[in-house]
């Protein structure tokens, strides 16, 4: 009698596919996910299929009455009373949510809208034009690809991305594509200014002098990504962006009106509806580390959708490869350590954190666990 389990195993072995070859085949087109959509694919390639049980475990949206805090920044730099109230609200949001939206900030809505449009224009231009910027060299000032962790992750995400290192050394304008050159440089000026205000408020919220976080280098690096999420024919099988926390200190994000961002709050996925003109701010891993877990770097994700494209632009205040500042050492701020609040993390080189982040990819786990002190 033939053992049926052996037959099933043999059948599975025969249907095994060469994942590496499929990844390389997709990557070599340099057309990204948009190329699949342009080819009118009705099925997503296997490399994009996520574990169904994992999707099912994370599918609940939880309490839809919960909303990410919205903070009005009107008067933040003119009115001491307003600044004190805003600082308190920022502190509470960083401690309980790790996310908040701000309105009446310093970035003109027209500039934000143009930045969104520029990302769309880049991704929707002729593929032969885009191909010249396609790269996996993360030290380049500007590059375009699909999934920075394509070869590390267990399942690819349904999105394409442009990436640009804007600080500490601004790129030569000629290194940037003409379709988004001017607005990238203009938008970065406004984001840098808003970031400096935010880091002052965060310093004050920690009971430190306003310039503390700036003085230790938190505002030095600025890394921008422009995500393009095409409509997906099988959104139930994949994700736009996997569950993850952000690298660096702080992320400022703008999104179009399609929406889709979800934040993990109290073990439930909460939708973050688009609020036109708002900037979404979230605590990133290194800010959690230097605040010794006082401020929380929170998991978030983007489900795939049948409608699209969705556009988002994230600006990360963080160091990056090849910028020199990745040699900087960070650990919990000494003023925040006490007998009641003992040190949780060891001091680390930012390059070690970045290397781990890129090596593991977006797998739903925080790199911070690797840097905790042994108890």
UniProtKB/TrEMBL annotation:
It comes from Coffea arabica. It comes from the Eukaryota. GO terms for biological process: coumarin biosynthetic process; response to molecule of fungal origin. Residues 218-321 form the Fe2OG dioxygenase domain. PROSITE patterns: FE2OG_OXY. Belongs to the iron/ascorbate-dependent oxidoreductase family. The keyword Cytoplasm does not apply. InterPro entries: DIOX_N (IPR026992), IPNS-like_FE2OG_OXY (IPR044861), IPNS-like_sf (IPR027443), Oxoglu/Fe-dep_dioxygenase_dom (IPR005123). Keywords: Iron, Metal-binding, Oxidoreductase. The gene is LOC113734266. This is Deacetoxyvindoline 4-hydroxylase. The keyword Membrane does not apply.
